[in-house]
Amino acid sequence: MRRHRSFKLRWSRYYQYIIEGQVFYLKLKAYTNESDGMMEWELITEQTYKNAIKKGYKDNVVLIEDEIAFASARALTLIFSETYGIDEIDLRKAIIEAQESVRELRKHTKIKPGLEYRIFKRIMELKVKEIQEYKEAI
Questions:
Q1: What is the model's pLDDT at position 1?
Q2: 44, 12 in Cβ contact below 8 A?
Q3: Which of 22, 91, 104, 113 ranks highest by number of CB atoms within 10 Å?
Q4: DSSP label at 4?
C-alpha cells in the first residue's frame, strides 16, 4: 500500500533490532495529513543508523528474544523476509499468529523470555512451511 502525496513526514525514529546475535537497522517514519496518519518501517544500513545517532536521534535497541510478544509485526516482517524470502503478506500472517500464540501461552503459564522466542520461531516456521505447501499445492 502506497501513501498518498498529501501525507507529510512528521517524525522518524531509528531502531536496532537484535535477533540471534544479528543486528538489523530500521527506521520508523510517521506521516500525517489533515485527517489521517500512518507509520512506515524501512530497513536501513548501519551507516545510516550511525549518522542518525550522531545527529542526535535517540538510540533505540530492541532485543527480540526478550520482547517477541510485543515487537512490531511490521518490523519483524521486514527482518524475516530477508531470511525466508517469501511474500511479506504471508510472512506477516505467520508472525502475527506466532505472536498471538506466545501471548496466549503467557496468560496461562510463566515462561522465560528465551523460551518465548524459541516457541515463537517454531510456530512461525511451521506457519511459513504450511503457507508454502499450500501455495505449491495450488
A1: 55
A2: no
A3: 91
A4: P
Distance CA 4, CA 8 (A): 9
Grid cell locating 115: 523460551
Beta bridge partners of 43: 26
Q: Can you tell me which residue has the cell 485527517?
A: 35
**Per-residue confidence of the chain (138 residues) as pLDDT tens digits?**
567 788 899 999 999 999 888 999 999 999 998 888 889 999 999 999 999 999 999 989 998 888 888 899 999 999 998 777 788 898 999 999 999 999 999 899 988 878 999 999 999 999 989 988 888 887
- DSSP assignment, residue 17? E
Neighbours of 125 (CB within 10 A): 14
The DSSP bridge pattern shows strands 8-19 and 22-32 to be antiparallel
State which amino acid sits at residue 126: L
Edge-first strand order for the sheet with 22-32 is: 37-44, 22-32, 8-19, 60-63
Q: C-alpha cell of 124?
A: 512461525
Q: How far apart are CA 81 and CA 87, in angstroms?
A: 7
Q: State the cell numbers at 19.
A: 535477533
